[in-house]
């Protein structure tokens, strides 16, 4: 059965986040040959529509409104619901990001639909679209199908590959006009805590530090390695609690859940709550001076040693490969 699917595009700093393209790819699977309509909400975002076509959107609906300059639950839900009202889709795909985690349940409750959240894989099997999602903090996976109503899912960033971009693709862009009112929150300013650079939740490479880095300065070698690899720096809660870094870097059960291609854990013991945030990384490298550290149980490659010796050596070797 082919479906019309709406996918929400996410914009940060006037740039489309990668998860927007992953959502289009997921939307294509859910659509089963039907139409995928990308929705772009924001202010001054009209120039971004081309990219959505390049990654496979069939049509784009835009709401360009200064009330949507930054995310607010009221503003975005009013705008998104206005598009849904016009389009009446049979499928909806949103990124399982901070924004998506806030918006999707609100929309689902307004539509009185189900919601499969945090999907890591989508396949067509036995005549159904089967969605895989982690449960018990990533210790097991469940497979779900939708039997009735709108197929509404959020997808975990970095798990569903975007389609290959084709710059010859184009399509129809139509604005939706909506009056956004009764905002209960107004964002006056956005202050970035983490330093500029690769976004931790979308990074392909993450170099993470734990209590073993011993100080704020101890993160410097990790930052250098991350820079050479074009990645982001993350941390365990141990490091955050010790004030070595900001909590925005925390990975784990009560931090960010990430799935990079390469995760390098430096001076992290591998507590279950930390594993909940990174155990689905594609390749895990652990550097720890304790050969019995739990992190080695899930690591693909383990280096027993002092991180202050090992990390600079890795950085130097990767630098040579780049030359
Ligand atoms: P430690 O356990 O102290 O490990 C430090 C490691 O560094 C050791 O293995 C040591 O051998 C190694 N080391 C020391 N010096 C060196 C060196 N020079 N070179 C190499 N290795 C060295 N934790 C999270 O990370 N994320 C969460 O989201 C999270 N949520 C939690 C939620 C709850 C409800 C609870 C109760 C706990 C949570 N925790 C979380 C905390 C978690 O249980 C651990 O306490 C924490 O992950 C430990 O951090 P760590 O591995 O950095 O520190």
From TrEMBL:
Protein name: Electron transfer flavoprotein alpha subunit apoprotein
Binding site for FAD: 211, 236-237, 250-254, 267-274, 288
Cofactor binding annotation: Binds 1 FAD per dimer.
Coiled-coil zones: none
GO MF term list: electron transfer activity; flavin adenine dinucleotide binding
Cofactor(s) the protein needs: FAD
All copies of domain Electron transfer flavoprotein alpha/beta-subunit N-terminal, residue ranges: 5-190
InterPro entries per record: DHS-like_NAD/FAD-binding_dom, ETF_a/b_N, ETF_a/FixB, ETF_alpha_N, ETF_asu_C, ETF_asu_C_CS, Rossmann-like_a/b/a_fold
Protein family per UniProt: Belongs to the ETF alpha-subunit/FixB family.
Keywords: Electron transport, FAD, Flavoprotein, Transport
Record GO biological process: fatty acid beta-oxidation using acyl-CoA dehydrogenase
Alphabetized PROSITE patterns for the sequence: ETF_ALPHA (PS00696)
CDD domains reported in the protein's UniProt record: ETF_alpha (cd01715)
